[in-house]
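Data deposition worksheet. Section B asks for the primary sequence of the deposited chain exactly as it was used as input, without tags or linkers unless they were present during the calculation. Section C holds the resulting structure in token form. Section D is free text for depositor observations; keep each observation to a single sentence. Incomplete worksheets are returned to the depositor.
Section A, Depositor: J.P.
Section B:
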Amino acid sequence: MDDGIARAIQIGESNARIIELAQNWCAHLEVEKNGGTGLVEMQTGLPIGMRSFKCVHASAAGFAGMALEGIALDFYDRNCVGCNKRSTVRLPNLSQLVAERDDAKKMDEARHEAAVREERTRYEMRNRARLSVRTPMNRPAPLLKALMLSIMSLLRKRLKSWLSLQPWHLNAFTLAFSRPSFSLLKRVPPTLYSTLL
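Section C:
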């Protein structure tokens, strides 16, 4: 059998079930054929062609289509929810299809929430790993700290040797501007002057 014919038969069987559920839902609900009848529909008698649902009490128009499950659910959502003119026929009816859809929607939402939680957990793990290797700004890295100590030691030696040659009445401010070797003192924070001397 051709794949197209097999698919058409599958759609027809599904549509027959949907039409039965819709007609069992309410006596006012009707199925209307839109368009022509194909050869496979003529041969099998299955509802394969375009169809739509209608009701004398419907407040919104519906869609027509070949696959009726989505069409029936759309019609139900826009017209049957909250309708007080419903004339119940029997079970099973559209409530079964609606329950299947709602269960599938809840499962999709649960899967989505689980995926979001998993992604958030992976992000937090990556973030913790990044933070564990990052050096905080208030603590200098060991290499930078060693470099700063080396510079301070060199400055301390130069300052002491220069002060031994200069008069003692010069203050640190004039020392910073009197010799090029002390131009670095302008860049050293005031809190470090005491450690230099």
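Section D:
Residues 3-97 form one domain.
DSSP finds seven helices and three strands in the chain.
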